[in-house]
Amino acid sequence: MEEYTSCHWLQHGLSFENDHIEMCCLCCHKGGGKLHIKENYNGKGLDWDDIFALKDKYIDDNKNGIIDPRCEGCFNLVHRYWQNDEEHFINYIHFNHWTHCNCDCIYCYTSWDKVNFQKRPHYKVFPMIKELFKRKLFRDGGEVTFAGGEPTILNEFEDLTNFLVKQKEVKRITVHSSGIKYSKAIENGIKAGKLSVCLSPDSGTRETYKKVKRVDKFNKVWENIAKYASTKLVQEPQNPYYTKVETKFILIPEVNTTKNEIDNWLELSIKAGIKSIVIDVEDVYCKKILAEDKEMPDYLVELSKYIVQRAKELNLNLVQYNNFCYLTTKYCIE
Ligand code: SF4
Ligand code: SF4
Q1: Which domains are seen in the chain, by residue range?
Q2: pLDDT tens digit string along 215-235?
Q3: In the beta sheet, which residues pair with residue 276?
Q4: Which 8-state DSSP code applies to residue 256?
Q5: I need a surface site. Which of 54, 121, 186, 273 has the fewest CB within 10 A?
C-alpha cells in the first residue's frame, strides 16, 4: 500500500466516448476532465499494454504529487492508501456513445446540432468487451455504467447487457435511459439484483415534460417506470448500493424549477413504487455560474433545500449527481 492522491477511475477506469476513449466521464469540475486514453477509436482491437502504460504514467505522477490540472476540483480525487497493484486491471467502465436518442432534451448538448447527432456512426463495443473478459482483465467487484445518448435503442444493447449481467465479476450495472423504450435486458438485470436503471422524466407534468424533452412521451415513460419498478428480483441485490429503479430530475432554471413540478414528480415516483431519486442541475448553467464566479440564485438554493427535506420526509433515497452535489456542499444543505 502506498499513500498518495489519486482516483479510482484514473487507476482502473475506461470511458468509451463517441470517437475516443477517456479515463472517466467527469467534466463539470474546475479542471474539466477529459484525460484521453485513445483518440479516433472506432471499436477495433485495443492495445491493452499501451492503455495500462498510460495509466501507469499518470499514477506515477500522482505518487510524485504531480496532479494533472484537468483533475483539479474533481471529487473523485482523494488522498488515501492505494493498493500497489503489480497486476493491471479494469474495474470501472462507462459507455457514453452519444449517437442517437429517442428524445430531444433542451439541456442536452446534442440539441445544438440534433440532425447531425442522429446521423453519427456508432461503433460496436461488444466484441472488445468480450475480449476484456476473456483476457480476465476485468476484476471482481467491478461496475459498468451506460449513459449519454439513449443506450436502449442501440443494436447491441440487449446482447451486451445480457452478457454483462451474466459475468460474475460485474457487481453493479447502471443504465441511464430516457425510459421511452422498454428493455427486456434491463428487466433481466433487475431480476438478477445487479442492474439499476435511472429514468429521466425531468418533470412532474406532461406540459413541462414536452417543454424539456420535446417529445410527447410523458405517459409512456411513467408506464415504463412502473413496469421496471414492479419487476421482482429473483436474486438478492449484489451490491450494497443497489437501487433497482430511480427517477431523475435535472433542474433547469426557469423551466422546471417550481415546487409544483417537484411535488408532482415525487408523487408520481412514489405511486410507481420508486424508492430512490436522482437530482442534478443543468450543466451549462452551472458552468456559466462557475466561470463568472457568481452565486446560485436564492430560489434555486431554496428549492434544493426543499428537495432534500421532502426526500427525507418521504423516506426516499436521494442520489445527488455532480452539480447538485456541488450546490448542496457550497450552501451547506443537509
Ligand atoms: S480525478 Fe476526476 S477528472 Fe481526474 S481521472 Fe479521476 S474522475 Fe477523471
Ligand atoms: S435523453 Fe440523454 S441523450 Fe437523449 S436528448 Fe436527453 S440528455 Fe440527450
Answers
A1: 89-330 (3.20.20.70)
A2: 999 999 999 999 999 999 999
A3: 246, 317
A4: T
A5: 121
Burial class, 120, CB count within 10 angstroms (exposed 0-12 / middle 13-18 / buried 19+) = middle
Distance 154 CA to ligand 2 centre (A): 14
Q: Which of 197, 153, 143, 148 is nearest to 175 (CA)?
A: 197
| 193 Cα: distance to centroid of ligand 1 (angstroms) | 28
Model confidence at 85, pLDDT cuts 50, 70, 90, reads low
Nearest CA-CA partner of 154 in 131, 132, 130, 186: 186
**Residue 49: partners with Cβ closer than 8 Å, 6 or more residues away:** none
Phi, psi of 299 (to 5 degrees): -65, -30
Residue 35 Cβ contacting ligand 1 at under 6 Å: yes
User: pTM of this prediction?
Assistant: 0.93
Beta bridge mates, 95: 16, 146
DSSP lists the bridge partners of residue 82 as 2
pLDDT digits (tens, 9 = 90+) for 177-217: 999 999 999 999 999 999 999 999 999 999 999 999 999 99
Q: Please, what is the angle between helix 184-191 and helix 218-229, to 10°? A: 30
Ligand 2 lining (C-beta closer than 6 Å): 101, 103-105, 108, 110, 148-150, 178
**Any atom of ligand 1 within 6 Å of the Cβ of 71:** yes
Beta-carbon-side half-sphere exposure of residue 27 (alpha carbons within 13 Å): 12
Contact 48, 40 (CB under 8 A): no
The alpha-carbon radius of gyration of the chain (Å, integer) is 20
